[in-house]
Design a protein that fits this description.
By secondary structure, this protein is α+β, with helices and mostly antiparallel strands. It has one domain: Orthogonal Bundle (Cytochrome p450), CATH 1.10.630.10. The chain has helices at about 30-35, 35-40, 65-70, 90-100, 115-125, 130, 135-140, 145-160, 160-170, 175-185, 215-220, 255-270, and strands spanning about 5, 20, 50, 55-60, 75, 190-195, 200, 205, 210-215, 275, 300, 305. Strands 3-4-9-6-5 form a five-stranded mixed sheet. A three-stranded antiparallel sheet has the order 10-11-12. It binds protoporphyrin IX containing FE.
Length: about 300
């Protein structure tokens, strides 16, 4: 990482004493190509919270601190969950409006009591029983663009032997999907804003502090997971990940999302037990912080190429 400093009160507006990282930019090409390299380079002294002037957010990297935020919705409001990371310039706003884009707050960015009013009826529709009943429909649509499918397939093919093991033992697939959500989540970041002054991991945050909850970093926290940098489909506690959030706003589509990925992987491994990554490819990722997955994976099976 670049310049680090312990600030008093910075021009960028960070809380006194909070480490500042001038170079942290989650939309930069380097970060998009490999956010885990950026994470590995972070100086130890500004984990688990530092301020990133490039985006005006406090970045939260540890499992415990992220969990603490999710568990305290009165202090950490969801109001910024869908806000643009950078202000949208006037011209772009005009184009969006002309195209019929009318941003509406959905339950994900509402606080209580408005949130509960929407969530209660929606939750009934997402019960495990109802989701299981959707399996035939999912088998029609499993090739959907979920980044998690791409991330899981990539990680299973990256290491020789993993794919063959999954193909021979499909019962390992649910565990592999949980591990992918810990190791390389398709929603790598979530956001909150403080409603009042609060102390998070020793940092005194003012009211209105915007938090960049780096879920992908929380999954790699060595205080939370044994050998966090290793992708291990057999990991017994991978499902403790925070990839679906926690608490009041816990992802309503978690069961459905996981099932979709499991169904896709089961079918892929059944049809292509000898699948492998085509060598020499440079993976690319969409330039946003909301979703992460390879835009394309070139794979081979019995001499044939597939994308
Ligand atoms: C498998 C990929 C998915 C991931 C990684 C994911 C991740 C997340 C995360 C991190 C949150 C925020 C939780 C919080 O604030 O505590 C969330 C909320 C939500 N997700 Fe998902 N999600 C996925 C798939 C889905 C699907 C397939 C659906 C619907 C069909 C869905 C519907 C929702 C809804 C409605 C909320 C808001 C819940 C609330 O505010 O009470 N998600 N998701």
């Amino acid at each position: 990482m670049g310049t680090m400093s312990r600030n008093a009160i910075t021009p960028a507006g960070a809380a006194p004493g909070c480490p500042v990282d001038e170079s942290f930019d989650p939309l930069s090409p380097d970060f998009l190509a490999d956010p885990y390299a950026t994470l590995a380079r972070l100086p130890a002294d500004h984990k688990p919270v530092f301020f990133a002037p490039a985006i005006g957010y406090y970045v939260v990297t540890s499992y415990d601190a992220v969990e603490q935020v999710f568990r305290d919705p009165a202090t950490y409001s969801a109001a910024v969950a869908q806000a643009p990371l950078a202000p949208i310039i006037g011209e772009a706003q005009q184009i969006l409006l002309a195209g019929g884009h009318k941003p509406q707050p959905s339950m994900v960015s509402l606080d209580e009591p408005e949130h509960a009013r929407l969530r209660k009826p929606a939750a009934r529709a997402f019960s495990m029983k109802r989701v299981t009943a959707m399996i035939p429909a999912i088998e029609a649509t499993a090739a959907g663009p979920l980044g998690l499918i791409g991330n899981t397939v990539r990680r299973l093919l990256e290491e020789p032997g993993r794919w063959a093991e999954i193909a021979a033992h499909p019962d390992l697939i649910p565990g592999a999907v949980e591990e992918s959500l810990r190791y390389d989540p398709s929603v790598p970041v979530w956001r909150r804003i403080t409603t009042k002054p609060a102390t998070l991991a020793g940092v005194d945050l003012p009211a209105g502090a915007r938090l960049f909850l780096w879920l992908a970093a929380a999954g790699r926290d060595e205080a939370a997971f044994d050998r966090p940098g290793e992708f291990d489909p057999h990991r017994p506690d991978a499902e403790r990940h925070l990839a679906f959030g926690k608490g009041l706003h816990y992802c309503l589509g978690a069961n459905l999302g996981k099932l979709e990925v499991q169904v896709a992987l089961t079918e892929l491994a059944r049809r292509y037990p000898d699948l492998r990554l085509a060598p020499g490819q440079q993976l690319t990722f969409h330039p946003n912080i909301s979703f992460r997955g390879p835009q394309m994976l070139v794979v081979r099976s019995a001499g044939r190429d597939a994308r």
